[in-house]
Automatic annotation (TrEMBL):
Residues 331-389 are annotated as: Disordered. Signal peptide: none annotated. Residues 359-384 have a biased composition (Low complexity). This is Gram-positive cocci surface proteins LPxTG domain-containing protein.
Length: 424
């Protein structure tokens, strides 16, 4: 924000919060207070996702003209410790006021001359104008040849007025007086020219920082007193105060500029005041202070400048404070000490065992096996009591009886042996 009057400015305190080893400093709270200035905005605020909190609209000075001071308190937040000293947040100003370059340009300056009139003569007669040209344009002239009384004068030998934009338009407006337009009085020897005209000026200003424009249209009434050019002595000219501008047969004319209603505005923090009137361009290219009445010599061109008073532009650089936080360390419960273990007596080393000599392998001896002589089966006998059966081939069938008798005898022997063992 910029302004022409520093007393209208307010300040800003911006706090940048960061957290060590953390990526999101959002939600840290702050409170602002002042011992010597009222605070018209909210006194508490929290940081955004970027870790920024701003207290704006703060007064720079109090009613007594003293600088306002502010104290900022960081509100506690679970899980975090503040590493920044509290003294860094006390006795803060709301910013620094300084003059900044204007961003306003004059981008267009045009003028139209019209409404020409003549003043009545001393006897009350109003004479008509002759040879008028350029009405409602940027250059208007009139007047007939004083010797032939005809409209035969070239354009550049007629009297009149012309308006043009200041040289170099568009151009930036610097603090102080700036020329925004140029007016020329073409003072030639004529008859029946105009005495009065209205200059309507259109001025366009642009703030190059924002593109915003402002257009003003001041209007001026210009009166030209055409004096008598037939006197033979400069001392007899109508306006002796014109001094050396008077000459024989060429008395100075008087030009009076009025109007130019107050047209003040502020754009981009730059105040432009168009109350200033026209100054006179000197031979060295400089302009005089604004004047309402100027004498111009006959058969010359007198140049005037339209001036604008431009005030300095002021701005406030906000106060920036950085606050660093750290994640709070959680306390660790102490661990009970472990009782020392009694040392174990060392074990005597065991003597190594002598290796056992390997046993020589035994060579196997094969004994010759003598085959047994075949046994001739005995002739079957029929046990006592067995019934012999004779088959068809005449053989006696006594096998079953023999087997049965053998089994019974064997079983009885085994049974007897078992009983004998139990008794023993």
């Amino acid at each position: 924000m910029a302004a022409a009057d520093p007393a209208t400015l307010t300040g800003t305190i911006t706090i940048q919060t960061s957290v060590e080893d953390a990526s999101s400093p959002e939600g840290f709270g702050y409170e602002i207070a002042s011992a010597n200035c009222a605070i018209d905005t909210a006194t508490t605020a929290s940081t955004d996702a970027a870790g920024v909190v701003t207290f704006a609209g703060l007064a720079l000075t109090n009613d007594e003209g003293a600088d306002c001071t502010y104290d900022v308190t960081a509100l506690e937040r679970d899980g975090y410790d503040i590493n920044t000293s509290a003294t860094a947040l006390t006795a803060l100003s709301a910013g620094t006021t300084e003059v900044v370059p204007s961003t306003v340009q004059l981008t267009d300056s045009t003028g139209v001359l019209g409404s020409p009139t003549r003043n009545p003569e001393t006897n009350g007669n109003t004479l008509a104008m002759f040879c008028l040209g350029g009405e409602n344009t940027a250059e208007m002239r009139a007047g007939r040849d004083p010797f032939t009384q005809r409209c035969t004068l070239p354009w550049d030998r007629q009297s009149g007025l012309g308006y043009a934009a200041a040289a170099g338009t568009p151009f930036p407006l610097e603090p102080g007086s700036s020329v925004i337009g140029e007016l020329t009085h073409f003072n030639q020897t004529i008859q029946r020219g105009f005495h009065n005209a209205v200059l309507s000026v259109t001025l366009t200003f642009t703030d190059t920082a924002t593109g915003e424009t402002a257009t003003v249209t001041p209007s001026y009434t210009i009166a030209i007193d055409e004096t008598d050019d037939v006197v033979v002595s400069a001392s007899r000219c109508e306006y002796p105060e014109a001094g050396e501008l008077n000459a024989p047969f060429a008395c100075a004319d008087k030009v009076t500029i009025s109007g130019g209603e107050v047209s003040s505005f502020e754009l981009g923090g730059t105040a432009v005041d168009l109350q200033a009137r026209f100054g006179v361009l000197a031979a060295d290219g400089t302009y005089s202070e604004p004047a309402t009445t100027v004498f111009t010599a006959e058969r010359t061109n007198a140049e005037f400048c339209l001036l604008a008073e431009v005030a300095e532009t002021w701005a406030v650089t906000p106060t920036l404070v950085s606050v660093v936080n750290a994640v709070e360390e959680e306390p660790v419960d102490p661990v009970d000490p472990v009782d020392p273990v009694d040392p174990v007596d060392p074990v005597d080393p065991v003597d190594p065992v002598d290796p056992v000599d390997p046993v020589d392998p035994v060579t196997p001896t094969e004994a010759p096996v003598t085959p047994a002589a075949p046994v001739t089966p005995a002739a079957p006998t029929t046990p006592a009591g067995a019934l012999a059966q004779t088959g068809a081939d005449g053989e006696t069938a006594t096998v079953s009886a023999l087997v049965a008798a053998g089994l019974i005898a064997a079983a009885g022997g085994l049974l007897f042996a078992a009983r004998a063992r139990r008794r023993a």
